[in-house]
Amino acid sequence: MRTGTHILVLGPVAAYGQAGPIPVGGRVARTLLAALVISANRAVSCDALIDAVWGETPPPTVQTTLQSHVSKLRTVVGSGAIERINRSYRLVASCRQIDACEFERLVSDAELTLAQDPRTARATIAAGLDLWRGPPFGDLAGEPFCQLEARRLDELRLAAEEIALEADLDLQRHAEVIPGLQAAVSDQPYREHRWYLLMRALSEAGRRVEALRAHEELCATLGELGLRPTASLDELADDIAMGTVAGAGAC
Fold it and tell me: What does DSSP say about strands 82-85 and 44-45: parallel, antiparallel, or unpaired?
């Protein structure tokens, strides 16, 4: 892909160049670009692209039509960025040229540095979350060809939010992290790691009773589904009750 060109899918599908936004085209062009991005640097068969764009109702001259759309798309990403390989096409791009790939890289970097350097991890994950402009793939998110990838990216975004909260907690930012965690468990009540962080944050802030109450609330929430918290959450609750977690001695 030409230098300075970036493809964005963490929100509506779009492209940017050194001079600003690059018009991608209508729904067909955006669908074709999204399908190639999902398998960036890997060949995607013409049949798979046709299915992604037109589903069960392709036009009569679909092969010619596909070639025409690919040709137009090359004006967006660069003439050499979409290679033809037998009956397939491949988008050639670096990770930094696709926002979803760059986001995934930043999440991985933040995970690796969180324990040793929470400040750097927090800055890294903030840079990743700043890449988001809305639901992945925008109005295409419900299309069969990208549903799984959209869900995967959404899950990764939730994990990134938890890394940010954990980094804030490691940096002793209890005053700001507790409200954020309370909102996080309200938004995603079945993500146990968020409850774990909330219990830890409340305990370390000297709010042991509230930490234990959060555990009870989680038990009730999961109990409605016939489930129990994982052992690590029960163990944390026991440690808080016994006052063995930092800051847990005060109520």
Answer: unpaired
